[in-house]
Amino acid sequence: MKWLALSLALAGHSQAALRFGCSTVSIQRLDPLVEPGKIPSSHVHQIVGGNSFNATMEGDRSEHATCTTCTFSENFSNYWTAVMFFKHSNGSYKRVPLMQNTALPNGINGGMTIYYTQQDFFSNGNQKITAFKPGFRMTVGSPTNTGDQGNPGLRFVCLQNKGTRFPELPTFPSQPCPGGIMTVHHFPACWDGKNLDSPDHQSHMYNTVREAFTPAGACPASHPVRMPQLAFETLWDTTQFNSMWPADGSNPFVLSYGDGVGYGTHADYVFGWKGDALQRAMDSNCMFNACENGNPLQSQSVQQMNACTVKSQVTEELDGWLDHLPGQENMGNM
Ligand SMILES: *[C@@H]1O[C@H](CO)[C@@H](O)[C@H](O)[C@H]1NC(C)=O
Ligand SMILES: *[C@@H]1O[C@H](CO)[C@@H](O)[C@H](O)[C@H]1NC(C)=O
Ligand SMILES: CC(=O)N[C@H]1CO[C@H](CO)[C@@H](O)[C@@H]1O
Protein backbone atom coordinates (compact mmCIF):
# COMPACT_ATOMS: atom_id res chain seq x y z
CA MET A 1 0.00 0.00 0.00
CA LYS A 2 2.75 2.38 0.92
CA TRP A 3 4.47 1.64 -2.38
CA LEU A 4 1.26 2.26 -4.31
CA ALA A 5 0.68 5.64 -2.62
CA LEU A 6 4.23 6.68 -3.39
CA SER A 7 4.08 5.69 -7.00
CA LEU A 8 0.76 7.52 -7.44
CA ALA A 9 2.24 10.65 -5.90
CA LEU A 10 5.18 10.56 -8.29
CA ALA A 11 3.01 9.68 -11.26
CA GLY A 12 1.75 13.26 -11.25
CA HIS A 13 4.96 14.40 -12.91
CA SER A 14 6.65 11.29 -14.09
CA GLN A 15 6.03 10.99 -17.79
CA ALA A 16 5.08 14.09 -19.76
CA ALA A 17 6.79 14.33 -23.14
CA LEU A 18 5.85 16.82 -25.83
CA ARG A 19 6.58 16.17 -29.49
CA PHE A 20 4.93 18.39 -32.06
CA GLY A 21 5.32 19.80 -35.52
CA CYS A 22 5.77 23.44 -36.43
CA SER A 23 5.58 24.73 -39.99
CA THR A 24 8.04 27.28 -41.29
CA VAL A 25 7.13 30.80 -40.12
CA SER A 26 9.98 32.48 -42.02
CA ILE A 27 13.28 31.90 -43.85
CA GLN A 28 15.39 35.05 -43.75
CA ARG A 29 18.59 36.70 -42.55
CA LEU A 30 17.65 37.75 -39.01
CA ASP A 31 19.37 36.65 -35.79
CA PRO A 32 17.69 38.36 -32.80
CA LEU A 33 19.85 36.61 -30.20
CA VAL A 34 23.35 36.77 -31.64
CA GLU A 35 23.01 39.86 -33.86
CA PRO A 36 20.02 41.76 -32.43
CA GLY A 37 18.77 44.64 -34.55
CA LYS A 38 20.98 43.77 -37.51
CA ILE A 39 19.03 43.67 -40.80
CA PRO A 40 20.23 41.58 -42.53
CA SER A 41 22.23 39.35 -40.17
CA SER A 42 25.28 37.45 -41.40
CA HIS A 43 23.58 34.20 -42.45
CA VAL A 44 20.19 32.73 -43.32
CA HIS A 45 17.99 31.00 -40.73
CA GLN A 46 14.85 28.92 -40.96
CA ILE A 47 12.45 29.81 -38.17
CA VAL A 48 9.32 28.22 -36.70
CA GLY A 49 6.91 29.30 -33.97
CA GLY A 50 5.30 32.63 -33.05
CA ASN A 51 4.76 35.47 -35.52
CA SER A 52 6.55 38.00 -33.29
CA PHE A 53 9.91 36.76 -34.61
CA ASN A 54 11.86 39.91 -35.41
CA ALA A 55 15.34 41.44 -35.62
CA THR A 56 14.97 42.49 -31.98
CA MET A 57 13.06 40.38 -29.48
CA GLU A 58 13.04 41.67 -25.92
CA GLY A 59 10.92 40.55 -22.99
CA ASP A 60 8.00 38.13 -22.86
CA ARG A 61 7.25 36.94 -26.39
CA SER A 62 3.89 35.43 -25.49
CA GLU A 63 2.58 39.01 -25.22
CA HIS A 64 3.68 40.03 -28.72
CA ALA A 65 2.66 37.18 -31.00
CA THR A 66 -0.88 36.63 -32.29
CA CYS A 67 -0.36 33.20 -33.87
CA THR A 68 2.11 30.35 -34.02
CA THR A 69 3.02 27.74 -36.63
CA CYS A 70 3.16 25.01 -33.96
CA THR A 71 0.51 22.48 -33.00
CA PHE A 72 0.15 23.88 -29.49
CA SER A 73 -1.60 27.23 -29.80
CA GLU A 74 -0.51 28.54 -26.40
CA ASN A 75 3.05 28.30 -27.62
CA PHE A 76 4.46 31.54 -29.04
CA SER A 77 8.08 30.50 -28.66
CA ASN A 78 10.52 30.74 -31.57
CA TYR A 79 12.93 28.04 -32.65
CA TRP A 80 15.51 28.40 -35.43
CA THR A 81 18.59 26.90 -37.08
CA ALA A 82 20.90 27.64 -39.99
CA VAL A 83 19.69 26.72 -43.48
CA MET A 84 21.22 23.99 -45.65
CA PHE A 85 22.40 24.71 -49.20
CA PHE A 86 23.68 22.45 -51.97
CA LYS A 87 26.91 23.56 -53.61
CA HIS A 88 27.17 22.49 -57.23
CA SER A 89 30.62 21.58 -58.64
CA ASN A 90 30.21 24.63 -60.91
CA GLY A 91 30.21 26.90 -57.84
CA SER A 92 26.46 27.72 -57.70
CA TYR A 93 24.35 27.22 -54.57
CA LYS A 94 20.72 26.15 -54.16
CA ARG A 95 18.70 26.13 -50.95
CA VAL A 96 17.73 22.62 -49.79
CA PRO A 97 13.97 22.39 -49.15
CA LEU A 98 12.62 21.39 -45.74
CA MET A 99 10.23 18.48 -45.41
CA GLN A 100 7.90 17.48 -42.63
CA ASN A 101 8.73 14.65 -40.25
CA THR A 102 7.02 11.30 -40.11
CA ALA A 103 4.44 10.66 -37.31
CA LEU A 104 3.09 14.21 -37.59
CA PRO A 105 -0.23 15.20 -39.18
CA ASN A 106 0.01 15.54 -42.98
CA GLY A 107 0.38 18.85 -44.74
CA ILE A 108 2.78 20.67 -42.41
CA ASN A 109 4.73 23.21 -44.45
CA GLY A 110 8.44 22.38 -43.92
CA GLY A 111 9.46 23.47 -40.45
CA MET A 112 10.74 21.35 -37.59
CA THR A 113 9.74 18.81 -34.98
CA ILE A 114 10.12 20.13 -31.44
CA TYR A 115 10.52 18.01 -28.32
CA TYR A 116 10.18 19.00 -24.68
CA THR A 117 10.89 15.90 -22.65
CA GLN A 118 11.74 15.29 -19.01
CA GLN A 119 14.99 13.49 -18.15
CA ASP A 120 14.07 11.30 -21.12
CA PHE A 121 10.84 10.24 -22.82
CA PHE A 122 9.66 8.11 -19.95
CA SER A 123 10.86 9.55 -16.67
CA ASN A 124 11.71 12.77 -14.84
CA GLY A 125 14.28 10.82 -12.79
CA ASN A 126 12.23 11.74 -9.69
CA GLN A 127 13.11 15.40 -10.08
CA LYS A 128 10.85 18.36 -10.58
CA ILE A 129 11.12 19.65 -14.15
CA THR A 130 10.95 23.46 -14.03
CA ALA A 131 9.56 25.16 -17.15
CA PHE A 132 11.47 28.02 -18.78
CA LYS A 133 10.39 31.49 -17.56
CA PRO A 134 9.07 34.45 -19.60
CA GLY A 135 12.02 36.19 -21.28
CA PHE A 136 14.17 33.02 -21.27
CA ARG A 137 16.41 32.37 -24.28
CA MET A 138 19.48 30.27 -25.15
CA THR A 139 21.59 28.95 -28.00
CA VAL A 140 23.44 25.67 -28.48
CA GLY A 141 26.50 25.11 -30.67
CA SER A 142 28.37 27.89 -32.47
CA PRO A 143 29.06 28.69 -36.12
CA THR A 144 32.72 29.26 -35.17
CA ASN A 145 33.24 25.67 -33.90
CA THR A 146 35.61 23.85 -36.23
CA GLY A 147 36.08 20.57 -34.33
CA ASP A 148 33.87 18.17 -32.39
CA GLN A 149 33.02 20.10 -29.22
CA GLY A 150 32.08 16.90 -27.39
CA ASN A 151 28.36 17.69 -27.54
CA PRO A 152 26.58 14.46 -28.52
CA GLY A 153 23.37 16.47 -28.87
CA LEU A 154 24.33 18.13 -32.17
CA ARG A 155 24.11 15.56 -34.92
CA PHE A 156 23.41 14.67 -38.56
CA VAL A 157 21.51 11.56 -39.67
CA CYS A 158 21.72 10.11 -43.20
CA LEU A 159 18.08 9.16 -43.82
CA GLN A 160 17.23 5.93 -45.61
CA ASN A 161 13.64 7.08 -45.05
CA LYS A 162 11.96 9.56 -42.71
CA GLY A 163 12.05 7.03 -39.88
CA THR A 164 15.84 6.54 -39.83
CA ARG A 165 17.38 7.75 -36.53
CA PHE A 166 20.79 6.02 -36.39
CA PRO A 167 23.66 6.29 -36.70
CA GLU A 168 24.00 9.87 -35.48
CA LEU A 169 27.03 11.60 -37.05
CA PRO A 170 29.00 14.64 -35.78
CA THR A 171 29.35 15.92 -39.36
CA PHE A 172 27.59 15.81 -42.72
CA PRO A 173 27.13 12.28 -44.15
CA SER A 174 29.87 11.29 -46.57
CA GLN A 175 27.62 9.77 -49.21
CA PRO A 176 24.24 10.53 -50.86
CA CYS A 177 21.31 9.77 -48.51
CA PRO A 178 18.28 8.21 -50.21
CA GLY A 179 15.78 9.81 -47.79
CA GLY A 180 17.45 13.19 -47.14
CA ILE A 181 19.46 14.48 -44.18
CA MET A 182 18.18 15.18 -40.66
CA THR A 183 19.88 17.68 -38.36
CA VAL A 184 19.31 17.21 -34.62
CA HIS A 185 19.83 19.83 -31.90
CA HIS A 186 19.51 18.88 -28.22
CA PHE A 187 19.75 21.92 -25.91
CA PRO A 188 21.29 21.92 -22.44
CA ALA A 189 18.71 21.36 -19.68
CA CYS A 190 20.47 22.45 -16.47
CA TRP A 191 19.81 26.10 -15.45
CA ASP A 192 21.71 28.33 -13.00
CA GLY A 193 18.32 29.24 -11.52
CA LYS A 194 18.92 32.99 -11.93
CA ASN A 195 19.60 34.28 -15.41
CA LEU A 196 17.10 34.30 -18.27
CA ASP A 197 20.00 34.85 -20.69
CA SER A 198 23.76 35.44 -20.56
CA PRO A 199 26.16 37.43 -22.79
CA ASP A 200 27.11 34.31 -24.78
CA HIS A 201 23.50 32.98 -24.53
CA GLN A 202 24.92 29.72 -23.15
CA SER A 203 26.65 30.08 -19.77
CA HIS A 204 23.35 30.32 -17.81
CA MET A 205 22.80 26.71 -18.92
CA TYR A 206 24.86 23.53 -18.51
CA ASN A 207 24.80 20.59 -20.88
CA THR A 208 24.59 17.02 -19.59
CA VAL A 209 23.05 15.63 -22.79
CA ARG A 210 24.07 12.13 -23.82
CA GLU A 211 23.63 10.69 -27.28
CA ALA A 212 20.19 10.57 -28.91
CA PHE A 213 17.31 10.81 -26.41
CA THR A 214 18.98 8.70 -23.71
CA PRO A 215 18.72 10.02 -20.11
CA ALA A 216 20.83 13.13 -19.50
CA GLY A 217 23.44 13.21 -16.73
CA ALA A 218 22.77 14.87 -13.35
CA CYS A 219 22.81 18.68 -13.13
CA PRO A 220 25.89 20.17 -11.39
CA ALA A 221 25.71 22.42 -8.28
CA SER A 222 26.45 25.49 -10.44
CA HIS A 223 23.34 24.81 -12.58
CA PRO A 224 21.08 22.82 -10.26
CA VAL A 225 17.65 23.39 -11.83
CA ARG A 226 16.49 20.68 -14.26
CA MET A 227 14.49 22.20 -17.11
CA PRO A 228 12.68 20.49 -19.99
CA GLN A 229 14.99 18.73 -22.45
CA LEU A 230 14.40 20.78 -25.59
CA ALA A 231 15.33 19.21 -28.93
CA PHE A 232 14.78 20.05 -32.62
CA GLU A 233 14.68 17.67 -35.56
CA THR A 234 14.95 19.29 -39.00
CA LEU A 235 14.51 17.22 -42.16
CA TRP A 236 16.23 18.43 -45.32
CA ASP A 237 15.06 17.03 -48.65
CA THR A 238 18.44 16.60 -50.34
CA THR A 239 17.20 13.91 -52.75
CA GLN A 240 16.96 16.17 -55.84
CA PHE A 241 20.73 16.79 -55.49
CA ASN A 242 21.89 13.19 -55.11
CA SER A 243 22.46 12.80 -58.87
CA MET A 244 24.75 15.87 -58.77
CA TRP A 245 27.08 14.47 -56.08
CA PRO A 246 30.64 15.63 -56.95
CA ALA A 247 32.88 13.21 -58.88
CA ASP A 248 35.59 13.46 -56.17
CA GLY A 249 33.14 12.07 -53.60
CA SER A 250 33.22 15.11 -51.30
CA ASN A 251 30.12 16.27 -49.41
CA PRO A 252 28.36 19.00 -51.45
CA PHE A 253 26.09 20.31 -48.67
CA VAL A 254 26.89 23.42 -46.69
CA LEU A 255 25.21 25.32 -43.83
CA SER A 256 24.28 28.94 -44.50
CA TYR A 257 27.33 30.37 -42.68
CA GLY A 258 29.68 28.50 -45.06
CA ASP A 259 30.27 25.28 -43.09
CA GLY A 260 30.66 22.23 -45.32
CA VAL A 261 31.80 19.97 -42.46
CA GLY A 262 29.10 20.56 -39.86
CA TYR A 263 30.94 21.16 -36.58
CA GLY A 264 29.45 24.67 -36.45
CA THR A 265 25.85 23.42 -36.40
CA HIS A 266 23.83 25.51 -33.93
CA ALA A 267 20.30 26.39 -32.90
CA ASP A 268 18.46 29.12 -31.02
CA TYR A 269 15.46 29.26 -28.69
CA VAL A 270 13.30 32.08 -27.35
CA PHE A 271 10.67 30.99 -24.81
CA GLY A 272 7.12 32.21 -25.43
CA TRP A 273 4.55 29.88 -23.86
CA LYS A 274 1.53 31.62 -22.38
CA GLY A 275 1.17 31.69 -18.60
CA ASP A 276 1.93 28.35 -16.98
CA ALA A 277 1.06 26.23 -20.07
CA LEU A 278 4.48 24.56 -20.35
CA GLN A 279 4.70 23.92 -16.61
CA ARG A 280 1.21 22.37 -16.64
CA ALA A 281 2.29 20.11 -19.49
CA MET A 282 5.51 19.09 -17.72
CA ASP A 283 3.57 18.34 -14.52
CA SER A 284 1.09 16.16 -16.41
CA ASN A 285 1.32 12.61 -17.67
CA CYS A 286 0.56 13.27 -21.31
CA MET A 287 2.74 11.97 -24.11
CA PHE A 288 2.94 13.37 -27.66
CA ASN A 289 -0.48 13.80 -29.36
CA ALA A 290 -2.27 12.85 -26.14
CA CYS A 291 -1.36 16.33 -24.77
CA GLU A 292 -3.58 18.00 -27.42
CA ASN A 293 -7.18 19.23 -27.26
CA GLY A 294 -6.89 20.70 -23.79
CA ASN A 295 -5.28 17.61 -22.20
CA PRO A 296 -3.75 19.82 -20.88
CA LEU A 297 -2.67 21.95 -23.90
CA GLN A 298 -4.80 23.78 -26.43
CA SER A 299 -3.96 22.75 -29.98
CA GLN A 300 -4.71 23.87 -33.53
CA SER A 301 -5.05 22.33 -36.99
CA VAL A 302 -2.37 22.08 -39.67
CA GLN A 303 -4.30 24.69 -41.73
CA GLN A 304 -4.12 27.15 -38.81
CA MET A 305 -0.41 26.40 -38.31
CA ASN A 306 0.40 26.97 -41.98
CA ALA A 307 -1.61 30.23 -42.04
CA CYS A 308 0.74 31.91 -39.53
CA THR A 309 3.66 33.67 -41.23
CA VAL A 310 6.10 36.54 -40.76
CA LYS A 311 6.83 38.88 -43.65
CA SER A 312 10.54 38.90 -44.50
CA GLN A 313 12.33 42.14 -43.61
CA VAL A 314 15.21 41.33 -45.94
CA THR A 315 14.63 41.56 -49.67
CA GLU A 316 16.98 39.12 -51.33
CA GLU A 317 16.89 36.05 -53.51
CA LEU A 318 17.06 32.84 -51.45
CA ASP A 319 15.84 30.36 -54.05
CA GLY A 320 17.06 29.50 -57.52
CA TRP A 321 20.75 29.05 -58.28
CA LEU A 322 22.83 31.62 -56.39
CA ASP A 323 26.45 32.54 -57.05
CA HIS A 324 27.17 32.89 -53.31
CA LEU A 325 25.57 32.08 -49.97
CA PRO A 326 23.43 35.08 -48.89
CA GLY A 327 25.61 37.33 -46.69
CA GLN A 328 28.75 35.29 -47.38
CA GLU A 329 29.93 36.93 -50.61
CA ASN A 330 33.40 37.69 -49.23
CA MET A 331 34.05 34.18 -47.97
CA GLY A 332 35.53 32.92 -51.26
CA ASN A 333 35.41 29.29 -52.29
CA MET A 334 34.87 27.14 -49.23
C1 LIG B 1 9.43 44.09 -36.18
O1 LIG B 1 10.00 45.26 -35.63
C2 LIG B 1 9.73 46.42 -36.37
C3 LIG B 1 10.52 47.56 -35.76
O2 LIG B 1 10.41 47.58 -34.38
C4 LIG B 1 8.21 46.67 -36.38
O3 LIG B 1 7.92 47.81 -37.16
C5 LIG B 1 7.52 45.45 -36.98
O4 LIG B 1 6.12 45.60 -36.90
C6 LIG B 1 7.93 44.19 -36.24
N1 LIG B 1 7.37 43.03 -36.92
C7 LIG B 1 6.76 42.06 -36.26
C8 LIG B 1 6.29 40.91 -37.09
O5 LIG B 1 6.56 42.09 -35.06
C1 LIG C 1 25.44 25.22 -62.23
O1 LIG C 1 24.58 24.15 -62.53
C2 LIG C 1 23.21 24.39 -62.37
C3 LIG C 1 22.45 23.09 -62.57
O2 LIG C 1 22.71 22.56 -63.82
C4 LIG C 1 22.79 25.50 -63.29
O3 LIG C 1 21.41 25.76 -63.18
C5 LIG C 1 23.59 26.75 -62.94
O4 LIG C 1 23.25 27.81 -63.80
C6 LIG C 1 25.07 26.43 -63.07
N1 LIG C 1 25.86 27.58 -62.62
C7 LIG C 1 26.85 28.07 -63.37
C8 LIG C 1 27.61 29.24 -62.78
O5 LIG C 1 27.14 27.61 -64.45
C1 LIG D 1 -4.15 30.49 -23.49
C2 LIG D 1 -4.12 31.30 -24.72
O1 LIG D 1 -3.89 32.48 -24.70
N1 LIG D 1 -4.36 30.66 -25.84
C3 LIG D 1 -4.42 31.34 -27.10
C4 LIG D 1 -3.28 30.90 -27.95
O2 LIG D 1 -3.32 31.50 -29.21
C5 LIG D 1 -4.49 31.24 -29.96
C6 LIG D 1 -4.32 31.91 -31.29
O3 LIG D 1 -3.27 31.31 -32.00
C7 LIG D 1 -5.71 31.72 -29.19
O4 LIG D 1 -6.88 31.37 -29.91
C8 LIG D 1 -5.73 31.07 -27.81
O5 LIG D 1 -6.78 31.60 -27.05
TrEMBL record:
InterPro entries: DUF1996 (IPR018535)
All copies of domain DUF1996, residue ranges: 31-273
Short name of one Pfam family: DUF1996
Species this chain originates from: Thermothelomyces thermophilus (strain ATCC 42464 / BCRC 31852 / DSM 1799)
Keyword tags: Signal
Domain of life: Eukaryota
Organismal lineage: Eukaryota, Fungi, Dikarya, Ascomycota, Pezizomycotina
Ranges in coiled-coil conformation: none
Stretch forming the signal peptide: 1-16
Protein name (database record): DUF1996 domain-containing protein
